[in-house]
Amino acid sequence: ATPTSIMVGTGRGAELGVLFRKGEALQSLKDAKVVAVDKTGTLTEGRPTLTDLVITEGFERKNVLALIAAVEAKSEHPIARAIVEAAENEVISVPDITDFDSITGFGVKAHVNGELVEIGADRYMRELGLDVEVFAASAERLGNEGKTPLYAAIGGKLAAIVAVADPIKETTPAAIAALHNLGLKVVMITGDNRRTAEAIARQLGIDEVIAEVLPADKVDAVRELKARYGQLAFVGDGINDAPALAEADVGLAVGTGTDIAIEAADVVLMSGSLMGVPTAIALSRATIGNIH
Ligand code: ADP
Ligand code: MG
């Protein structure tokens, strides 16, 4: 490609809401074989709401919601906001706490009024030595509905299963279809529950799912996919996605995402829509000439 065609392509991208931060991205995107995509905030809105709260015997709903909201009030995870908002909607007063602790990819904990409150994924509960088997049927149903099941322990006892649901962005299905039309594989990489991730992938026709990935392991998932498929584009929005964005042949950040993700990316999708990915690839093919 000539410098002029790169300039024209970059300009056309800007008009379409696709910001090429580096010229090489426009040149290499045409060769992408696989698009790996973060789930939360990229495929989905990243704004989950609480949909279910099932309490075990001996606990009381309002009390459990107050305690878990007190802990989540200190967390920055989107799940946390869903739980705090649910407590606010039920006009539950949320106590203030001090000793908050976040275990990345697992959950959060703190003492509330002297009581230890722990909330997180099933693997967090397992780590705490708690058996979540009583909720097996609920967890299976919730996961199949594309909801994320979480568990709360109070005073070291399993107190509740909680579910949050994060709506798929309106533009996501068409973007996945467009990527398939361009001949690409689409793979989801997420820290979320496997069943939940697979349900969402099924709805979207995503080809492959790598779930329950710890934030530090996302970059390994990207390396493995590169080895298997060849040229890889990664799309993400979060702080956790920055290493994967850097490791990918081309990293594309959702423009509504975190500054850290945008900094690590070669391309920024200004509208926040995944539709920018097929647009960018088509533009690369048109500009560089290797077109169908
Ligand atoms: P992702 O952003 O893809 O969901 P994370 O690594 O941030 O991945 O989180 C993985 C899982 O860890 C979540 O799906 C949830 O089960 C658990 N988790 C993380 N933060 C919290 C939190 N504040 N409250 C409850 N669970 C949490
Ligand atoms: Mg995300």
UniProtKB/TrEMBL annotation:
A GO CC term assigned to this protein in UniProt: plasma membrane
Gene Ontology annotations of biological process type: copper ion homeostasis
Subcellular location: Cell membrane; Endomembrane system
Superkingdom of source: Bacteria
Keyword ATP-binding: yes
A GO term, aspect molecular function: ATP hydrolysis activity
Assigned protein family: Belongs to the cation transport ATPase (P-type) (TC 3.A.3) family. Type IB subfamily.
Protein name: Copper-translocating P-type ATPase
Upper lineage: Bacteria, Deltaproteobacteria, Bradymonadales, Microvenatoraceae, Microvenator
Residues shown, of full length: 466 to 757 of 828
